[in-house]
Automatic annotation (TrEMBL):
Gene3D superfamilies: Dihydrofolate Reductase, subunit A. It comes from Agromyces tropicus. Coiled coil: none annotated. This is Dihydrofolate reductase family protein. InterPro entries: DHFR-like_dom_sf, RibDG_C. Residues 111-170 form the Bacterial bifunctional deaminase-reductase C-terminal domain. Signal peptide: none annotated. It holds the Pfam family RibD_C.
Length: 193
């Protein structure tokens, strides 16, 4: 099975969105560069960020998100973000009425089942787990191998925490990578076992 990576952009004080689910300037680094990150033309980053992020994105086989993120994004109109092959949605509710059953989205009850389904779909490729409540649950369950953070130079003060509602200590190894981009610091840690 591939590596399970918890990933997201985060403020210096540990938030992935404000109290109203708005990222504010957390994603500014994704649109302020001169190198296209994908085919959309919207995401443009520095060369340094491209060299770090694009190879990682290319290795993702499945992404695990919560139903809240799925609903906020309107399911990305049935097209997984960033060119990912599959999205596994952790939810206790059925797929939305009228949802295209051919879209590569899988609705699963529970984080453990979602990560297992994503690993099956991804094979040897990376399983990405979105930061926030679902990512925190996966970390607490011992399912995360690596933590990647794109730290934006902003203090939000309050909001949605990167690690969700994790209340126990979890040790990470020393950073494997620390890369300075424009308006972002890319960090990668392995989870200590």
């Amino acid at each position: 099975m591939g590596t399970v990576v918890m990933y997201g952009s985060v403020s210096v004080d540990g938030f992935i969105a404000d109290e109203h689910d708005q990222p504010g300037p957390l994603f500014d680094w994704l649109t302020s560069g001169d190198v296209p990150l994908d085919d959309s033309g919207v995401l443009r980053v520095s060369k340094t960020s491209f060299d770090y992020v694009r190879p990682y994105w290319d290795r993702i086989g499945a992404t695990v998100v919560g139903r809240h993120v799925f609903d906020l994004t309107d399911g990305w109109d049935g097209t997984p973000p960033g060119g990912v092959d599959h999205v596994v949605v952790v939810t206790h509710r059925p797929e939305p009425r009228g949802w295209d059953p051919g879209a590569p989205f899988h609705f699963v009850d529970g984080v453990e089942a979602a990560v297992a389904a994503a690993q099956e779909l991804a094979g040897e490729r990376i399983v990405e787990v979105a930061a926030g409540d679902v990512g925190g649950q996966a970390l607490a369950a011992g399912l995360v191998d690596e933590v990647r953070m794109d730290v934006a130079p902003v203090v939000l003060g309050s909001g949605k925490r990167y690690f969700g509602s994790v209340h126990a200590q979890h040790l990470l190894e020393d950073p494997d990578e620390v890369i300075r981009g424009d308006r972002v610091l890319h960090l990668r840690y392995r989870v200590r076992r």
